[in-house]
Amino acid sequence: MALALPAAVSCHKDAEVSEASDAKVGFYTEAGVFKGGETVTVLSEGLQADMNAVRFKVSDDGALVQTDGEEFRFNGTKGASFRAWYPAEAKHTDGKVEFSAAADQSTEAGLRASDFMTTCTDVAKATAQPVKLAFSHRMAKMKVVLDGFDAASIRLRGAKLPIVWECSTNKLFAKDDAETVPVMLNRQEEGVFLAMLPAQALDVTASEENPFITVSTESGRTFTWNPESALRLSEGKSLLVTLTKAITGTELVAVSVEMEAAWGEQYTDATASLEEIVGEERKLDGKALGFTVETDVPKNLWAGGPEMMFDGNLNTYWNTDWVSAESCGTDVVASSILLKDFNISYIDCCTKDHSYEDFKFKTIFTLDEKKSAVALPWTAVIDMKAVYNVTKLVTSRCPEGTKNGHMSLFQRIKDYAYYVSSDKVNWTLVAEGTMPVYGPQTYTVTADTKKRHAGRYLKFEVKTMHWREKMAEGSTEDDYHAAKKCSATAIGPLMVSEIEVWCK
């Protein structure tokens, strides 16, 4: 792998070393730069056989230990050039390294994986001594300090996260076509939050529903900050935003925005303000806020996953896997049968024509084991990326008359529950109940307003379904359970178009 280094490249130069012929190549770096066990990737030019993305594990004392492969040696007494980067997993192709900071840096792993570091080091002569690789931070650091109060989470409206490092020139390039995505900051200690981001001019445009910075407390109180002017992140420097609490009624006033040079020295740049969101109940825009969903319930292969519940489109939906019925040697969708007045043309069952009556009474229900259906209850855990005091939840199915309206049997949900949590371990009940068989297009669940239901995570739990109850006028129990082989604990499908989360 030839680095093709131009003379103008600024690299670290090792001090003059004693000449050593064909010496084995070794490396070290300053202790404390990496955590023991973390890995870096190295390229070389000028060795007998050059390193092409070879991985090394960093010891606690800073020594680099090659994880696999052959040993590498200098070419006689000649020197060599080295390029290295962290995290080692960043993709390398044709002398370029593609890297992206994490959108969720609230965990230590997410923060560490976002601290992109590189080195370019040249040695003039072969040496038997380990070569020092001096790594530099290539990201900008955004630090938010809460003066006088603490918070559970801080969310940045959005930033562009991917970059490209050109190894030969040691330059970083932004990916101009990258989307701006919400970023969760890491809580370092009480009142101190941090994120590692590529250098850029941050998009400070904001709306009431999607402010630039959202500060959420453990009790569900929400504060926002919108800068009056553009904010720029610079490579290897830190943008420090200090928010000081000075209560005047329901409003808070913040203090300053400062820039730290080289991740250290500070100088004052601007001032700003902070205010608490109070009073009016408001709907959260899950798509704009970057909601993500975790579930172990398999989705139907041709339909949408649980993230569809927050895309703002009633014609898309979370569709769990099906229980199938076998007829004419072909699997047919059990949820689509035995609905009085259902148009048989929607059912892709057999090549020969069947009347609805023929189809209805010849159907044998069986569980399709190959689809690994999960037994009830079904749960979906929504990461709202900030702490909110949840007051109301509105669940919707596709409208009648739309492309998917005939299939969106939202009323199959029977017993349900909603919970909130700050850690995904301890859950607080928001509301529970039973939905009717003939549910409306939208179904609203209201929390007890005398209590606060604050948390970053929202769990939607489907306890039971209306599978064994009449779904259409004229249908009988025998119609639904032709051979009574349908499992009560492994059934489907569930189709939920949207879940609106309201908070206060």
Brief overview:
The chain is mainly beta and 504 residues long. It folds into 3 domains: 12-137, Sandwich (Immunoglobulin-like); 140-164 and 174-278, Immunoglobulin-like (Sandwich), CATH 2.60.40.2630; 281-504, Galactose-binding domain-like (Jelly Rolls).
Number of domains: 3
**How would you name the oligomeric state of the polypeptide chains in this document?**
single chain
Which architecture of the largest domain would the CATH scheme give at its second level? Sandwich
Overall strand count: 40
Could you say which structural class the secondary elements and strand pairing correspond to? mainly beta
Net shape: elongated
Which superfamily, in CATH terms, is the homologous superfamily of the largest domain? Galactose-binding domain-like
Q: Terminal Cα separation, in Å?
A: 58 Å
- What's the rounded overall pLDDT mean? 75
Q: Biggest β-sheet, characterized?
A: 9 strands, mixed
CATH T-level topology of the largest domain: Jelly Rolls
The first-level CATH class name of the largest domain: Mainly Beta
Cα gyration radius (Å)? 29 Å
DSSP strand content = 35-45%
Can you give the helix content as a percent range? under 10%
The stretches of 5 or more residues where confidence is low (pLDDT under 50) are 4-10, 246-256, 265-272, 323-373, 401-411, 468-491
- Put simply, the count of helices is 3
Write the layout of secondary structure elements.
Blueprint: E1 12-13, E2 27-28, E3 39-45, E4 54-58, E5 63-66, E6 78-86, E7 91-93, E8 96-100, H1 108-112, E9 117-125, E10 131-132, E11 136-137, E12 140-147, E13 153-160, E14 162-166, E15 171-174, E16 180-184, E17 186-189, E18 192-197, E19 200-202, E20 213-216, E21 222-225, E22 231-233, E23 238-244, E24 251-252, E25 256-261, E26 265-271, E27 274-277, E28 282-283, E29 292-294, E30 318-319, E31 324-327, E32 330-333, H2 356-362, E33 364-365, E34 378-396, E35 415-421, E36 428-434, E37 442-446, E38 454-462, H3 477-480, E39 495-496, E40 498-503
Parallel strand pairs: 1-9, 2-10, 12-23
Antiparallel strand pairs: 2-5, 3-4, 3-6, 4-5, 6-9, 7-8, 8-14, 9-11, 12-18, 13-16, 13-20, 14-15, 17-18, 19-22, 20-21, 21-27, 23-25, 24-27, 25-26, 28-40, 29-34, 30-39, 31-32, 31-33, 34-37, 34-38, 34-40, 35-36, 35-38
